[in-house]
Every structure is written in structure tokens, then in C-alpha cells.
DNA sequence: CCCTGATTCGC
DNA sequence: GCGAATCAGG
């Protein structure tokens, strides 16, 4: 996948809309990372958005001690009207590729939006939502509770009592 | 801990 | 030109 004009345009619109790089990266869902997005933005010269290039900033050249001292002559920020009569640029031509959430719902999934495996963090509930074979398969994604397993508070309880009806056979009850 | 963007560097 | 790695901050 390369940066086609369409993608670049979309990237610009999103970026100018105020979406974060990671958010844009996810939205594009082309396997891009936020680094890729930021890198492209940087290359495009859109870095430092919404920032008023009035002065000061461009005047200072800070030699970052990352590896080598690179002679930064000047920041290429011509602050020019990139939008050339493209009013639609401010709008998001989305909705066409609506993910269309699966119609079937588990018993309850109201506390948080299910996340894809990509968005799953170590601290997120791994309770499966939907059919693992389906492309819409997602995880609970709620805050995980340390100690009780890879699930959130809600699902942790379910995980260990999948068959509540079965309680007829009450577990051993020790005295003391 | 999570997140954010900015910049440099190797391919 | 591209994106990862890194830096720097919230």
C-alpha cells in the first residue's frame, strides 16, 4: 500500500479535523501505524497543525541530541492555504464503509464498546464477543481486573459461573 | 499506566 | 518516499 492521492487527501482531512495520528491510523485500517501517519503528515508539512505560525517557533532551531547534530536550516512551514477550493476537504466522506455491527448481541455489552484484537490491550477484558470465525469478532475491551483473570469485573463473574442454573448442586460449604 | 506528536534514521 | 525507532511531553 502506498500513499495514493486519495489516502493523502483523506489523511489531510482527518488530520485537519483534529483526529489524533493513532486514530487516523486505525481509521485508515490499512495496516498503518501512527508513526506512518505522523511521518506522512510530517513529510506533507502538516506537522504543527492548528498552530499559529505567527512567529517564534520557526525562529528557533533546536538541535535535538538524538544521534547526530543535523543542520536544521529552517522549518519548511510556508503556512500556505493547502486547501485549494476544496470545501469537501473539511468533511469526512465516510459512512460508505460502515462496519455494520453484528445484529446478534450477546446478553449484554453496554458498558463499553467491544474492541478488535488490534485494540486489545493487556489491561483489557478478553471476553469474546460474537463468533470468533466472523470478521466482526471482538473482545469486551473493558478494564481488566488483576487477579481474577483476563476479564473485566462483569465477565469475570460470568467466566467462573457459566451455568448459574446448575447451582442446584451447591458447592461444598465448609463450616468455618 | 495510558496517550499524544516531532524528529531522525535505515531501507 | 516510506515507516520504525526514538525522543519528548501530557
TrEMBL record:
Q: Which residues does the annotated region (Disordered) include?
A: 52-84
Q: Where is the composition biased (Basic residues)?
A: 61-70
Q: Which InterPro entries match?
A: GcrA
Pfam families hit by this protein: GcrA (PF07750)
- What name is this protein filed under? GcrA cell cycle regulator
Q: Which organism is it from?
A: Methylocapsa palsarum
List the taxonomic lineage. Bacteria, Pseudomonadati, Pseudomonadota, Alphaproteobacteria, Hyphomicrobiales
Amino acid at each position: 500500500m502506498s500513499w495514493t492521492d486519495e489516502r493523502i487527501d483523506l489523511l489531510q482531512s482527518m488530520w485537519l479535523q483534529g483526529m489524533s495520528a493513532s486514530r487516523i491510523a486505525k481509521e485508515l485500517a490499512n495496516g498503518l501505524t501512527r508513526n506512518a501517519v505522523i511521518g506522512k503528515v510530517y513529510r506533507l508539512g502538516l506537522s504543527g497543525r492548528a498552530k499559529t505560525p505567527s512567529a517564534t517557533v520557526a525562529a528557533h532551531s533546536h538541535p535535538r541530541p538524538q544521534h547526530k547534530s543535523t543542520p536544521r536550516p529552517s522549518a519548511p512551514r510556508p503556512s500556505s492555504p493547502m486547501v485549494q477550493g476544496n470545501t469537501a476537504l473539511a468533511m469526512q466522506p465516510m459512512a460508505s464503509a460502515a462496519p455494520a455491527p453484528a445484529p446478534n448481541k450477546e446478553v449484554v455489552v453496554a458498558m463499553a464498546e467491544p474492541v478488535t484484537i488490534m485494540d486489545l490491550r493487556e489491561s483489557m477484558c478478553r471476553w469474546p464477543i460474537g463468533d470468533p470465525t466472523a470478521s466482526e469478532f471482538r473482545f469486551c475491551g473493558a478494564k481488566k481486573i488483576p487477579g481474577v483473570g483476563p476479564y473485566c469485573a462483569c465477565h469475570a463473574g460470568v467466566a467462573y459461573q457459566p451455568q448459574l442454573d446448575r447451582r442446584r448442586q451447591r458447592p461444598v460449604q465448609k463450616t468455618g
